[in-house]
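Chain and conformation:
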Amino acid sequence: MIAKQNTLSLYVHWPFCESKCPYCDFNSHVRENIDANRYETALLSELDFFAGKTEGKTLSSIFFGGGTPSLMPPRTTAAVINKAKATWDHDADLEITLEANPGSSEAKKFREFRKAGVNRLSLGVQSFRDEALKFLGRVHNSGEALGAIELARGTFPRFSFDLMYALPGQTLAQWEEELGQGLDLAEGHVSLYQLTLEKDTAFYRQHKRGLLHLPPEGIAADLYTLTNKMCAKASLPAYETSNYATPGFESRHNLNYWQGGAYAGIGPGAHSRIFSNRSWQAIATQKKPEDWLAAVEEGGNAVREAVPVSRPERGEEVIMTALRLSGGLSKTAFKGISGKPLNDFINPGALEFLIAEKLLVETQSHLAATPKGALLLDSILGELLG
């Protein structure tokens, strides 16, 4: 199913971190001094800018990402939430997610974030093993992770946490034990990511120098298969390539993104896809925090790029995101976004081959990747759209 075009998700980027993790290619920065008051005022100004482009929309979710948004003052979180609610009509059960690290200094603020209006916490646990946390450059330890999970459970109506796997030297038995521990602690949702080597990261540079080696593809595939089986058995089936949830506990914000819905992004380096006057527009803001702040203070926004996106172009984007979902892509809803049937976008010979290889499954209403196909999704998309 594709998200409705009259709804809107709001993404709020807080770009600051205590340290840069060696695997991270997100727009995150370490700064000794941050003028939180100026950033709060600027976020509210940029929210006003996007409000003018999204009149008549119903707000379906707010997501504070980063960076490390749990380093944000809770008063800033509250100010953005209150401004957003006053700006747009919104669902009665508006989902408001904040990403947080499990460090004790941030966990102390959980109750303040809940009071500010956050009703879903996403914890960046990454591992329950101290040696893995050290390797991943995390600043918390396993004890803090466990404590933060229990505090989140008692503070927020919904919470999730992330774990990373397919680490160098990791065995199936090790991951089975750690994932089992995670599933015992989970409540409705977990995100489980294979470690990948992204350009411009410390891990990527180490790999290029021959200092870091990920598990072979066969082992990585076995780890993924094990992950899906264990999560399904724990009543947390995969609903997206790296996300698992009890039905009804999926991340509504991320579903809107994957299903092709409109979203506005405020903060340094944030991206937007706005649907207005029957057309789409892609917007990106200045990435460097200081440049973003100066631009917003001068002109009310920090847009560095704003380009029209044709309906066929938006259709291709949706194919690439919706096939990540276990439910796949609705052909009828897709035509509503792209203006053309799905068959006009894909290589028929490639589709026939991929179905025969049991990498894709097609019904009269949907096209979806199989669990086997989810392992090869990038290659599949290249074939389909090539």
Q: What stands out?
A: The first helix runs from residue 36 to 51. The radius of gyration is 21 Å. The chain has a mean pLDDT of 96.
